């Protein structure tokens, strides 16, 4: 019985260390990510409340718009389908927001079929291929960028990253970060 407890304790300690390492890696990647001049920006979708973008989605779109205004890219791919409780797709909500902020319609490319992060990147890669774009900046919350980077590599995207942190929703940010740890582990195991 003592041997079983000792082995169990060691396994639990190793598991906690692995979780800690992954958590540090997620946090570090999000904080250190810097955009590079690219052909386009991909803004990853997030919840829409009816027709209103969620605070996380607004911040992501603002970041994408800022990157275009600062000359990092000329085009934005807004990526996200229509989920439960959403009256319009996440891509449509982002497009409407960008148009209100003065971005030209021809600078916005809507990808509205995606329901997961992997879909976002796979479908956005197809759009990039159609448009002749070779490089991109992926925008999401900082906690989401590490997993997005793993998926971007899988679909062979030449990408840099720019993350947002929504201080007013710190508890949601913390929840998102904690949820990313098992999501990253799942990606390492299942590769999707």
UniProtKB/TrEMBL annotation:
InterPro entries: Cell_Envelope_Assoc, DUF218, Rossmann-like_a/b/a_fold. PANTHER family: ENVELOPE BIOGENESIS FACTOR ELYC, INNER MEMBRANE PROTEIN, PROBABLE PERMEASE. Residues 39-159 form the DUF218 domain. The chain crosses the membrane at residues 7-26. This is YdcF family protein. The keyword Transmembrane applies. It comes from the Bacteria. CDD domains: YdcF-like. Keywords: Membrane, Transmembrane, Transmembrane helix.
């Amino acid at each position: 019985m003592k041997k079983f407890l000792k082995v169990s304790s060691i396994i639990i300690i190793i598991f906690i260390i692995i979780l800690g390492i992954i958590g540090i890696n997620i946090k570090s990647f999000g904080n250190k990510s810097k955009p590079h001049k690219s052909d386009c920006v991909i803004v990853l979708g997030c919840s829409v409340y009816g027709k209103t973008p969620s605070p996380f989605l607004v911040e992501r779109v603002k970041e994408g718009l800022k990157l275009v205004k600062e000359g990092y890219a000329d085009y934005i791919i807004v990526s996200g389908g229509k989920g439960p409780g959403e009256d319009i797709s996440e891509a449509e909500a982002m497009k409407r927001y960008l148009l209100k902020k003065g971005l030209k319609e021809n600078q916005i490319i809507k990808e509205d079929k995606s329901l997961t992060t992997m879909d976002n990147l796979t479908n956005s890669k197809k759009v990039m291929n159609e448009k002749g774009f070779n490089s991109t900046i992926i925008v999401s919350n900082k906690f989401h960028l590490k997993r997005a980077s793993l998926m971007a590599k899988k679909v062979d995207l030449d990408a840099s990253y720019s993350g947002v942190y929504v201080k007013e929703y710190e508890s949601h940010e913390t929840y998102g970060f904690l949820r990313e740890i098992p999501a990253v582990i799942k990606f390492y195991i299942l590769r999707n």
